[in-house]
Amino acid sequence: MADPIYRRIAEQLREQIESGELVPGAQLPTELELRERFNASRNTIRDAVKSLIALGLVETRPGQGTFVTERIEPFVTTLSADPKTGLGGGEGVTYQDEGRAQQRVATATDPRVEIQLAAGVVPVLLKIPEGAQVVSRHQQRLIDNTPWSLQTSFYPMKFVTAGGATRLLEASSIENGTVKYIEETVHLKQLGYRDWITVRSPDTNETAFFRLPGDGRVGVFEILRTAFDQDLNPMRLTITVFPTDRNQFIVNVGELPGG
Amino acid sequence: MADPIYRRIAEQLREQIESGELVPGAQLPTELELRERFNASRNTIRDAVKSLIALGLVETRPGQGTFVTERIEPFVTTLSADPKTGLGGGEGVTYQDEGRAQQRVATATDPRVEIQLAAGVVPVLLKIPEGAQVVSRHQQRLIDNTPWSLQTSFYPMKFVTAGGATRLLEASSIENGTVKYIEETVHLKQLGYRDWITVRSPDTNETAFFRLPGDGRVGVFEILRTAFDQDLNPMRLTITVFPTDRNQFIVNVGELPGG
DNA sequence: GCAAATTTGTTCGTATGTATT
DNA sequence: CAATACATACGAACAAATTTG
């Protein structure tokens, strides 16, 4: 009697799933059937199923039953730049190209543009005073109609007021990407960037948009990209959030085959 | 009656935690006290607490109580190479240097060395036949005595049999790193690598070693690094597993300040 | 060192609500 | 509307871990 009952039941079900006896998408026996099979109370069965949910092995649908989860085909983003363009993965045009390269349809909403006061990490990474004005451009991105990432870019308001990059304020995407647009207007060329990768629990907005389970079981990548200009000053901060259940990343360094 | 009771209770407790009213490490009221305060049954209170556990906000200790979780000071690993050495983060000597740079003590166990038959992703990424012999070198790594990562490197057995890199079979760490040792013996120079970053649930070994909660709530980064030689052939595959609750990563691309 | 008290963990039973077919 | 299946909620009892006296 080492392990509690619910855990031993969970263990048996887990073996059935991992052995392939229960394939992804297949329905498990109902709680009442499992109650008879394992000779335990319905609450104990439910505890067992809950632990499998926590492991991401099954999901329950009210009124329908319990099903083995089907793995989402992951989308792979390359974080390191093409050495020639200096552009990185998930940036502007590149994003749609990467979607196409994986034979999938990438779309993005028109950006929601706001003028905000820099707070939190924004002034720190952009090296501007706390409370200074910044342009925030926020986009939702989908692949094959599945919500894939939430992206917000912050630019110093100076780019608009002193640099003439007025289209940063327009709520429409900038063709050829903002990197090129800023180079043409403000004359700041992006020569490099630093990505800072963390994983955390999703907030309520993210849980809703990505349709994640409400229990915070699936985390999200949060990638902070600070881009630097030719004088090595920060010129842009982009924060992108990706669910960990459908995203993977590649970093290329040095000389590689198939480049 | 939109939200269930347990969720409204969880919501109130969450606000107390996020507002700072309950600081990290502080003890929550006991289940019996919460039962009176919210006028609900003990099971309903427990459901509320469970949802906070799933969010990583609190932890329970049998016989003691429920406490607000204390955040672990994250360790940051740089994945992109120093352009001069071609060495990447978490590799050999660099690993200890990064530990020191963050004022922390990094240690590693002596490697457990095995000769295995290539299976799974190993032959695919190393571009050797499935079932070919490989040298596997496995290390546990700690920082400030906290388990931090599990690393396994795979080398083609040819390096030993035909290249004379016999010390790859020794169960002791190779000073100056294996990258340099292979360059000196097999005459293969590491000019680049590709990192493939995923997040998944920990297996039972990892859960035990990292002392993670048993419910699979905390995920692990799995980073597959394929290193390439001067002929752009794969020469090494290193798989490293890091818990997401205590690890973050940096990727530097292009020209950056403070280099 | 031991016993009692405290606190969370497990298990059962039961009733009712909500979503889907 | 009825049947089915999971979700929520309450009550109760005992077990296991920890602290306290």
List keywords for this structure.
homodimer; 259 residues; Chorismate lyase; 8 helices; 11 strands; elongated; DNA-binding
Please, could you describe this protein's structure?
2 copies of one chain form a homodimer. Chain A is of the alpha+beta class and 259 residues long. Chain A folds into 2 domains: 5-68, Arc Repressor Mutant, subunit A (Orthogonal Bundle); 75-250, 3-Layer(aba) Sandwich (Chorismate lyase), CATH 3.40.1410. Chain A contains 8 helices and 11 strands. Chain A has helices spanning 5-18, 31-38, 42-54, 93-101, 121-126, 158-161, 177-185, 204-209; strands at 58-61, 65-68, 75-78, 106-108, 112-117, 133-143, 146-156, 192-200, 220-228, 234-243, 247-254. In chain A, strands 4, 5, 6, 7, 8, 9 and 10 form a 7-stranded antiparallel sheet that branches. In chain A, strand 1 (58-61) and strand 2 (65-68) form a beta hairpin. The N and C termini of chain A lie far apart (57 Å). The interface between A and B is large, with 40 and 40 residues. Strand 11 (247-254) of chain A pairs antiparallel with strand 8 of chain B, so a sheet runs across the interface. Chain A binds a DNA duplex (21 and 21 nucleotides) through residues 4-6, 30-32, 40-44, 46-47, 49, 60-66.
